[in-house]
Design brief:
By secondary structure, the chain is α/β, with parallel strands linked by helices. The chain has three domains: 206 residues; 89 residues, Translation factors (Elongation Factor Tu (Ef-tu), domain 3), CATH 2.40.30; 128 residues, Rossmann fold (3-Layer(aba) Sandwich), CATH 3.40.50. It contains 16 helices and 13 strands. It is elongated. It starts with a helix and ends in a 5-residue tail after the last strand. The relative contact order is 0.09. Pfam families: Ferric_reduct (PF01794), NAD_binding_1 (PF00175). Keywords: 2Fe-2S, FAD, Flavoprotein, Iron, Iron-sulfur, Membrane, Metal-binding, Oxidoreductase, Transmembrane, Transmembrane helix.
Length: 440
């Protein structure tokens, strides 16, 4: 069974267990009482919201077993989708419980809200958790993400951990499954404990172990153009670091240790050095333009399923857009060593916007790959129609249907290429993408 099927099966199984615990806890016995149905719905939506919140923890834990098989794109999309389910279930829980208790007490809704928040154990904590979840959800909306700096978005999302803690404390104190059911207590402690343990292990324990083992430092900095630098990082025992071409790390440089930035490797790991190539797009990447050799580096990862492991065919097409060329360049190096049949298409607005073109040309000559650098505005039309349209891509790569296609670039460009590949009849399992944007 595929990892995705395992994940869906576990979510369904836990939803069934939570429902069973609700029934065994006599959750439906008070339906005839005033507000009984509303209260029951409030409890059920609260339980399902807790399960969705645990799913969120599992997804952000970036478990290697899941992440290397599903890819960061899919995990990020699921994390975002399940996050909105968490919000709607929690809001439904709040509304149903408030209306149910108000009906049972015969009190006005606004008065009941005040009673619940200020006079009921740990409901104030749950209220704060709900407000935090709303804040995280608002900043996750596409329109908000486009206006936020990565640093701001990342800082706001750290509050999700506090929301989980406060919500759990609320559930421990007044949740009927905790208060009246020993089986329920064991179940919920095990569920939350497993999810939080996975986060601590993979997001804290494993990175600490790897950083202690490898002791990374900046070795050299090479300026590619006025906005782009390539940073070489060295360390100990890098041959034991399980990194592959096409993957990325979260990088922290110790003179700005509080900021973590996702950068793909721009060269195939060789056991001696790691290399990233960064364009000044935000505060963190702009600051990195002046990084000095000797600076200590902390990493989290490697992440991403955008690797040669996903290949299904002997022939490969690599499509890069803008600075998304960095993992494509690393993949080209790995495929070049295997002497595979390779075509590379590099899309940029102007020739001056291209990065690492000289290295691409050198690798292409070495392994006999065909390299096409396509420049022009997003609405440019060439001899065969739109620059990345079906006719133009088919003219550049006539046998595209029999190739594995790796695409990395800005979201708009990546979506356009995927539509083109679909129109050209390239099977879904031969298309591999990595969106070069934070938060998927």
């Amino acid at each position: 069974m595929k990892p995705a099927h395992w994940l869906f099966a576990l979510v369904a199984l836990n939803a069934a267990w939570a429902t069973d615990l609700f029934v065994l806890g006599h959750g439906f016995e008070d339906l005839a009482a005033p507000g009984g149905l509303l209260t029951a719905l409030g409890r059920l939506t609260g339980l399902y919201g807790a399960i969705a919140l645990v799913l969120q923890l599992v997804l952000i834990a970036r478990l290697p077993w899941l992440e290397t098989r599903l890819g960061m794109d899919r995990l990020t999309a699921w994390h975002r989708w399940s996050g909105f389910w968490v919000l709607w279930l929690v809001l439904a829980h709040v509304v149903f419980i408030t209306l149910g208790y108000a009906a049972a007490d015969g009190s006005p809704v606004l008065s009941e809200i005040g009673t619940l928040v200020f006079d009921t154990d740990d409901v104030l904590k749950a209220t704060v958790a709900t407000i935090l979840l709303i804040g995280v959800a608002v900043t996750s909306a596409r329109r908000a993400r486009r206006r936020l700096k990565y640093e701001t978005w990342h800082f706001v999302h750290l509050y999700a951990y506090l929301a989980v803690l406060l919500g759990f404390l609320h559930q421990v104190t007044i949740g009927r499954d905790f208060v009246s059911s020993p089986v329920g207590r064991v179940y919920w402690w095990a569920l939350y404990g497993s999810a939080l343990g996975a986060v601590l292990l993979t997001r804290l324990g494993l990175p600490l172990l790897r950083n202690f083992r490898h002791r990374l430092r900046v070795v050299s900095v090479v300026r590619e153009n006025p906005e782009v630098v390539t940073v070489w990082i060295g360390g100990r025992n890098l041959d034991k670091l399980p990194a592959r071409a096409g993957q990325f790390f979260l990088w922290r440089f110790l003179n700005r240790w509080w900021e973590a930035h996702p950068y793909s490797l721009s060269a195939m790991p060789d056991g001696q050095y790691l290399r990233i190539t960064v364009k000044a797009l935000g505060d963190g990447s702009a600051w990195l333009q002046g990084i000095r050799p000797g600076t200590r580096v902390l990493i989290e990862g490697p992440y991403g399923a955008f690797t040669a492991r996903r290949r299904t065919r002997e022939h490969v097409l690599l499509v890069a857009g803008g600075v998304g060329v960095t993992p494509i360049r690393a993949l080209l190096e790995e495929f070049a060593h295997a002497r595979d049949d390779i075509v590379v298409v590099y899309r940029a607005s102007t020739a001056s916007d291209t990065v690492l073109t000289g290295e691409l040309e050198q690798l292409a000559r070495w392994c006999g790959a065909r390299l096409h650098v396509v420049t022009g505005s997003s609405d440019a039309v060439g001899r065969y129609g739109p620059m990345m349209g079906p006719q133009h891509l088919a003219a550049l790569v006539p046998d595209v249907q029999r190739r594995d296609v790796y695409v990395c670039g800005p979201p708009g460009m990546t979506d356009a290429v995927r539509r083109t590949l679909d129109r050209l009849g390239v099977p879904e399992n031969q298309c591999h993408t990595e969106r070069f944007a934070f938060a998927g």
